[in-house]
Amino acid sequence: MTVRAAVAGASGYAGGEILRLLASHPEVEIGVLTGNSNAGQQLGALQPHLTPLAERVLEPTSADRLRGHDVVFLALPHGQSAAVAEELGTEVLLVDCGADFRLTDAADWERFYDTPYAGHWPYGLPELPGARSSLAGTRRIAVPGCYPTAVSLALFPAYAAGLAESDAVVVAASGSSGAGKSPKPHLLGSEVMGAMSPYGVGGAHRHTPEIIQNLSAAAGERVTVSFTPTLAPMPRGILATCTARARPGVTPEALRAAYEKTLCDEPFVRLLPEGRWPSTATVYGSNTALLQVTLDEAAGRIVVVSAIDNLTKGTAGGAVQSMNIALGLPEELGLSTIGVAP
Ligand SMILES: NC(=O)C1=CN([C@@H]2O[C@H](COP(=O)(O)OP(=O)(O)OC[C@H]3O[C@@H](n4cnc5c(N)ncnc54)[C@H](OP(=O)(O)O)[C@@H]3O)[C@@H](O)[C@H]2O)C=CC1
Ligand SMILES: CC(=O)N[C@@H](CCC(=O)OP(=O)(O)O)C(=O)O
Q: What's the 76 CA to ligand 1 centre distance in angstroms?
């Protein structure tokens, strides 16, 4: 099978990472690439690491240009995908890396985003209970946010096994590429280098309802989440430290056994051997989520640390993994679990 794929937002970080993966996907042929302010430019001027595609020219983003492909990846700012989706028929598989179709509750959307609620699509985190069956054969995929990927993979096994009380506390650090390529004052090199800074504190970050949605579905009851994101002086990576009160009687052995049982067949989630802890460097450029879990018996809390590359498993890798499932291809095709070191 040859799958012809277009990428809208090819000049951005997410679009660039999608192209890095598609360029070595054995079943994909790369079709039209679009941008906005950079339309008309050669890709080589914007994404110089994508050498085989350097001479490709970006077209303006429009449904007409994206039509006629088997798959269209949308790596556009929030609020831009719905209009494109409406114009493209259901014969094309649309994979949206933005937030537009992630939330099932319109009220959550309206609280955190400033465009009208567009609806929800099958959610592209295949590891969550029931996700693979909703992705198989679908023509619409909502790729999760990068923090929700790291946090949901860390905590869903504890909730699905009924081991955690329904309030979680998460502190996560992200590399600066999570904020996209367009210039922002707090992302100037001199502001980011040498500092860790919190933002979106106190329930204000828009990923909070998405994390709650995922953990509540796994738990079968409403889970509350206190989520504190921080910006770290690195280009890529998320390290999420996630804790929840353990249910009475939970032992370290039962906790570990639940994680082993839930994750043992997952190609892209790896529970590390006891005593080893994840780090962002290890997953750089790979589609792997690394996890470690322990029980802090004195505090009565489950502690899970997860590391992902925000652009790979946190966006483009998750998008390609979900595309593979939707098209009936082997889930691991075109995706590497091998990182880059040092
Ligand atoms: N960065 C990350 O870690 C993650 C990003 N995402 C999501 O992926 C999407 C893209 O993010 P990211 O790549 O980081 O952002 P960037 O700012 O790096 O890229 C944005 C892209 O969208 C294009 N664009 C901007 N405005 C418009 C518009 N009005 N109409 C059409 N195209 C437009 C830009 O084109 P041009 O440059 O030509 O102006 C560029 O190609 C976002 O929805 C983001 O939330 C999801 C998970 C993680
Ligand atoms: C460091 C940084 O700024 N990260 C981004 C999250 C990136 C991501 O996953 O987000 P989307 O929901 O935009 O797809 C943020 O906190 O807004």
A: 4
Give me the chain's average pLDDT, please. 96
Element (H, E) at 305: strand 301-308
Ligand 2 atom with minimal separation from the 229 CA: 16
Question: Is the distance from the beta carbon of residue 179 to the nearest atom of ligand 2 less than 6 Å?
Answer: yes
Q: Is domain 3-144+313-327 annotated with CATH 3.40.50.720?
A: yes
Residue 192 in contact with ligand 2 by CB distance below 6 A? no
ipTM: 0.97
Distance from the CA of 277 to the center of ligand 1, in angstroms? 32
CATH 3.30.360.10 applies to domain 147-310:
yes
Instruction: Decide: 314 and 150 in contact? Cβ < 8 Å.
Output: yes
Within the chain, all domains assigned CATH 3.40.50.720 are found at 3-144+313-327
How far apart CA 131 and CA 249 sit, in angstroms, is 30
> Quick one: pLDDT band at residue 187, thresholds 50, 70, 90?
confident
Mutate which of 18, 21, 97, 146 for ligand 1 pocket (most atoms within 8 A of beta carbon): 97
Question: 237 with 310: CB under 8 angstroms?
Answer: yes
Residues of the chain with CATH 3.30.360.10: 147-310
